[in-house]
Amino acid sequence: MSKLDRDELVRITKDIVEILSPTGGEQGVADYIAGLFRGLGVHVRTQEVELGRSNVICTLKGSGGGQSLLFTGHMDTSRGYADTVIVDGDWLFGPGATNMKACFTAA
Fold first, then answer.
1. What is the mean pLDDT of each run of 10 residues along the chain (107 residues)?
2. d(CA 21, CA 55)
3. CA distance to 40, 52, 72, 92, 93, per residue, from 89 (Å)
4. 86 contact partners, CB below 8 Å, separation of at least 6
């Protein structure tokens, strides 16, 4: 936990939440996530399933022979508590923040 940068995690979460992504319009989030992981040196490929709708597949090879681990989630959101990002102390609110954009940052 000591290696986590709270400000960076908040910034990434805010960035993702600020990208509108109603069902059928998730491409902006996919592009952001792909760019973020590419910047971290992770192998990234996208899989367009419909026009403007891509899955993002990131692969990070481990150093051992253990089991694989998969993080998965959806990028589409519906209207929620707030129309814009609000950071209030340790809380962050915004469209899709809890369903499920903050989960990408947590993973």
1. 90 92 92 95 94 93 88 84 81 86 86
2. 13
3. 28, 35, 28, 8, 11
4. 92, 93, 94
Residue 98 φ then ψ, to 5°: -100, -5
> 53-66: string of b/e by CB count within 10 Å (b at 16+)?
bbebebeeeeeeee
Q: In Å, how far are 8, 67, 79, 83, 107 from 71, measured between CA atoms?
A: 20, 13, 24, 27, 7
Three-state DSSP class for residue 43:
strand
d(CA 9, CA 80): 21
Is there a contact between 23 and 76 (Cβ–Cβ < 8 Å)? yes
Q: Encoding tokens for residue 94?
A: 């915004």
